[in-house]
Amino acid sequence: MPKPDLDDLDRRLIAELSADARLTQVALAARVGLSRSAVQERIKRLEREGVILGYTLRLGLETKPGVRAYLLVKGSGPSHERAVRILEAFPEVRVADSVGGDIDLVLQLEGERLEDLNRVRDELAKLPGIASTQTLLVMAPRFDRR
């Protein structure tokens, strides 16, 4: 899918919705200086083009259930696409980022129990092309700007 062209109004709409996804289209229109119908059309287009994938609920740091960890992954081959495709099947893998440097992938994991995160780590370590993993358990959340 080609990358959509976003103009300043699209970016302003996205910024407003990122700050408060519950804003009404009337409130959004007032904030960005468009009519309600123009805002509605732009939002539908952004959803259709995959820029806006959905709307979600964010819990406060202390109310998030379970255990969180970062998993640092070193590969032993040129590509990690197979591992990434397999990781998509694990609901505990919340984010997978390919990074530069000695580490190839940084995974953000969340699970109800430590055993859930161990299972992901163990399955990943069995895959060809994975040289090593390192687990960083989150001891206490500090802040989250998302």
Topology:
Blueprint: H1 8-19, H2 25-32, H3 36-48, E1 67-75, H4 81-87, E2 93-98, E3 105-111, H5 114-125, E4 130-137
Antiparallel strand pairs: 1-3, 1-4, 2-3
Helix pairs in contact: 2-3
The succession of helices and strands, N to C, reads: HHHEHEEHE
The overall strand count is: 4
In the CATH hierarchy, what is the class of the largest domain?
A: Alpha Beta
How many helices? The count is: 5
Low-confidence residue ranges: none
Number of domains: 2
**Which term fits the overall shape?**
elongated
What key phrases describe this protein's structure?
146 residues, alpha+beta, Arc Repressor Mutant, subunit A, Alpha-Beta Plaits, four-stranded antiparallel β-sheet, 5 helices, 4 strands
Explain how this protein is built.
With 146 residues, the protein is an alpha+beta fold. 36% of the residues lie in helices and 21% in strands. The chain has two domains: 8-48, Arc Repressor Mutant, subunit A; 62-137, Lrp/AsnC effector binding domain/regulation of amino acid metabolism (RAM) domain (Alpha-Beta Plaits), CATH 3.30.70.920. It is built from five helices and four strands, in the order αααβαββαβ. Strands 2-3-1-4 form a four-stranded antiparallel beta sheet, covered by helices on one side. The longest helix is centred in the first third of the chain and has 13 residues, at 36-48.
Short description:
The chain has 146 residues and is α+β, with helices and mostly antiparallel strands. 36% of the residues lie in helices and 21% in strands. It is built from five helices and four strands; from the N terminus they run H-H-H-E-H-E-E-H-E.
